[in-house]
Amino acid sequence: MNRLVTYSKQGVFIPTRGRVRDIGPGVSHKSQAMHLYLKGFTPTEIARMTNHDPHNVDRYLRDFEQVYDMVRDGASLNKICFLSR
């Protein structure tokens, strides 16, 4: 088994180029931020825990809440994609 996969399953963050640059098939900073946010962590705590820029974390959370609100209100997938770019 790939060591990256093994470490990922153990919750260990390996700072590969794809993860640091938020490119490729790896877990993105956005999904890490969302998981931590849903667990009750503040944006400042999330930025510190993920070693990520607080302004970007705020943007991720704002985008997430916008999409969440549209889903909750019953917007179509096409409309959500269009409005959230």
State the secondary-structure class.
mainly alpha
Rounded to the nearest angstrom, the radius of gyration is 15 Å
The major sheet is characterized as: none
Helical run tally: 6
What overall geometry do the principal axes of the alpha carbons give? elongated
Low-confidence stretches: none
Number of strands: 0
- Cα distance, first to last residue? 37 Å
Give the averaged pLDDT, no decimals.
79
β-sheet strand percentage: under 5%
Number of domains: 1
User: What is the H-and-E element order?
Assistant: HHHHHH
Helix content: 55-70%
Write a structural description.
This protein has 85 residues and is mainly alpha-helical. It has one domain (3-84). 66% of the residues lie in helices and 0% in strands. The chain contains 6 helices and no strands. Helix 3 (29-38) packs across helix 4 (43-50), helix 3 packs across helix 5 (54-72) and helix 4 crosses helix 5 (54-72).
Give the topology.
Elements: H1 3-9, H2 17-20, H3 29-38, H4 43-50, H5 54-72, H6 77-84
Helix pairs in contact: 3-4, 3-5, 4-5
Précis, in short:
By secondary structure, the chain is an all-alpha fold.
Features:
85 residues, mainly alpha, 6 helices, 66% helix, 0% strand
